[in-house]
Amino acid sequence: MKIAISSDEHLDINRQDVTELVPRQAEFLQAAGVDYYLMTGDLFNDFTHSLAYVERLQRELAPRTQVYFVAGNHDMLAGVTYEELEQPELIGPNYLHRRVIHLPGTRVSLVGNNGWYDYSLADSLATARTPAEFARWKSAYWIDRRIKMPLSDQERMATVLTQTQADLARARVGGDQLLFLTHFVPRRDFIFDQLDHPRWQNVNGMLGSQKLGQLLADEQVERVAFGHLHTRHLPVTLAGTTYYHAPVGYGLRRLNEWREANFWQEWCRDLAVITL
């Protein structure tokens, strides 16, 4: 069985024509023998467009390949509420948040949670600043200020941890190994720790939570796929967990993160593939 993983495609920002892209992606994935295609968020700046894209890709790939995704912060900017995001049964079968999916013919289950952040990845500021100070910076400068939610960042992250712990336990009942999908960064090992400027430490605070990484280590989760960062990492095993991070990122004139000449070549290059 083959699983392909990607993240941060930013299809609208990268000006991709979904009508042309979806058949091409479907042909590539099926030719590669991919059974499950997993996306860890940031497809569009509007959840309705992200969901429509995933559902269109699923129709092209059915019945050979199954598609799942979790939402990133960009997906949450428009077209969906916090309450809707927390009701996966109302969104559709391709949305993996709060779901446990056993992969037939294997001893592996998928577990998904969109994730969030609690400022704990901002090493040099986390103990020097209050949550209110981080929140003020966020409301002035960070794109997530557009995301309306009925709770604080710390409260939302605490909810993520409670949900994740419960869903991991639910998945373990059958003795399966776990592949956990989330958008936000679960460990300090992946962030811009070399950038100690206060602005970058503020950014680090919005990237994820070290508490999630600790939970995944405590629960001995075998595999984790995440997104949000646009830096490239080869699969790496930390504290017994193998992490996959496969972002496409931006291919803009003012911000070109690609190693290839165009989106298609970059997407093909960045795909992470797991063989079970």
Automatic annotation (TrEMBL):
So which domain of life are we looking at? Bacteria
Alphabetized Pfam families for the sequence: Metallophos (PF00149)
Domain named Calcineurin-like phosphoesterase is located at 1-231
The residue stretches assigned to a coiled coil in this entry are none
Protein name from the UniProt record? Metallophosphoesterase
Q: Which organism is it from?
A: Lapidilactobacillus achengensis
